[in-house]
Amino acid sequence: MTNKIITDQLVHYAKRAYNRGLVGGTGGNFSARTGDQRMLITASGLSLGDTSSDNLIDMDITSYQWKPNEDYVPSKEYLFHADILRLRSDVDAVLHIHPPYATAYAVLKRDIPMVTDAAFKQPPTPRVPFAPSGTEELQKNVVQAIENHPDCKVVLLEQHGIICLGSTIRWAYDIADMTEELARIAWLQEMLCGSSFKPLRP
Ligand SMILES: [Zn+2]
Asked: Could you tell me if residue 81 is inside a domain?
C-alpha cells in the first residue's frame, strides 16, 4: 500500500471517528504503519475531525524522531502508538479515543460486560491502570498490557478511554465503533436489569 493510500485512509477514518462521536474536542489520536520502522500519526492539539494530509506527522517508531512539519507536532500519545506498532507485527493501525459508554466503564475501573453474540467472540480486553496522558508511566502500563495479552484488539485505559489495534486502518475504526456499541448495549442492559443480571454464554 502506498503512503498516499495510507494517508487518505487515515484522514478519512479519523474524520469518521470524530463525526461518529467516538471522541470530542481535540481528544484522540490515530496512527498507521507506513514501513518497517515508520508511522504516520495525527497532530497534537487538533481535532481528529480536522485531520488532513498536511498535518499528519511522519515518525520513526524506534527512535521517536519525527520529520518537522511546519508548526505541527505529533500527538503526545506517540509513545504508546510507536511501541504498539513495534511490538505487534499483526497491527498496522492504532486508534485511541474516548467513546462515552466504553469510557464510562473505564472510569469505573470495570470491564465492559460482554453480553451479546458479537461480544462473546472478542478476545479479552485488558484494563490499564491510570497514568496521566502522554507520560512514560502510561506508555509503560500500556506496553505491559500488550505484552500480557498478545492477541488483544482493545485496551481499556482506566479513567481515560480505549485503544484499538487494527490489522488495517479501517479495521481499527470498526473495532472502536463496535466496542462502543457493545458498551452501550451493556449499559442499557444494566439500566433495565441491574448489574447482577448475568447472561449465559451459549
Ligand atoms: Zn486520550
From this structure: yes
